[in-house]
Amino acid sequence: MSEEKKNEEIIQDEEVESTVEETTVEETIEEEISTEEKFASLDEEYKIMMESKVKDAQDKAQEAEDKFIRTHADFENIKKRLEREKYQAIDFASEKFAKDLLAPIDALQMALISANGDFEATQVVDKLKEGIELTVKAFNSAFEKHNITEVEYEEFDPELHNAVMKVDDEKIESGQIVTIMQKGYKFKDRLLREAMVSVAN
């Protein structure tokens, strides 16, 4: 083969290689551009997704804050109402008891009216006695309604009874109650007034 032909072939090979290299470089550049575009597209999608999540989180936080504010306001209103009702209950705690005491007062007034009538002395005494009995009955009824009871007198109890005097009585054991001089009363389990009693020596 002549040298000229060899040179021509070498030049052709170099041209082919150069064309192949140019094509490969162009493809590589195109691939890089395509990859960058894909990444840019992914970045944009990610950014949109993250913005959406942030917006959802902000919306939920706002909703939770609104609920908290409403709940707190409701709680404050209930608290104020209960406070008001508590003070009203304290102010009017004795109202029912006061109403129930009106009946004994009415009985006493009726007894006084009866006593002022034109009756003989014995009739006046009977009318007064009847009025007093009605009054005591009305008081006892009011007391029962409000859990006010008499203290027990079966045995002497220094927490319930006040021994104001000692009496010699052979029929009763020493330390036992002989006479009730003033009745004692309890409100539920609390002592209102101890009973005044005399006890055996």
Overview of this protein structure:
With 201 residues, this protein is α+β, with helices and mostly antiparallel strands. The protein is 67% helix and 14% strand. The chain is built from 4 helices and 6 strands; from the N terminus they run ααααββββββ. The protein has a 3-stranded antiparallel sheet with strand order 1-4-5. Strands 2-6-3 form a 3-stranded mixed sheet, with no helix packed on it. β4 (185-187) and β5 (190-193) form a beta hairpin. α3 (102-115) runs antiparallel to α4. The longest helix has 89 residues, at 3-91. The radius of gyration is 53 Å and the shape is rod-shaped. The relative contact order is 0.06.
Describe how the helices and strands are arranged.
Layout: H1 3-91, H2 95-100, H3 102-115, H4 121-145, E1 148-150, E2 161-167, E3 177-182, E4 185-187, E5 190-193, E6 195-200
Parallel strand pairs: 2-6
Antiparallel strand pairs: 1-4, 3-6, 4-5
Strand content: 5-15%
Biggest β-sheet, characterized?
3 strands, antiparallel
Give the beta-strand count.
6
> First CA to last CA: what distance?
161 Å
Please state the average pLDDT score: 81
Helix-strand makeup class: alpha+beta
Which sequence of SSEs, written as H and E, runs from N to C?
HHHHEEEEEE
| Rg over C-alpha atoms, rounded to the nearest angstrom | 53 Å
Strand order of the largest sheet: 1-4-5
Q: Shape, please? A: rod-shaped
Classify the helix fraction into a percent range. Answer: 55-70%
- The stretches of 5 or more residues where confidence is low (pLDDT under 50) are none
* Total helical segments: 4
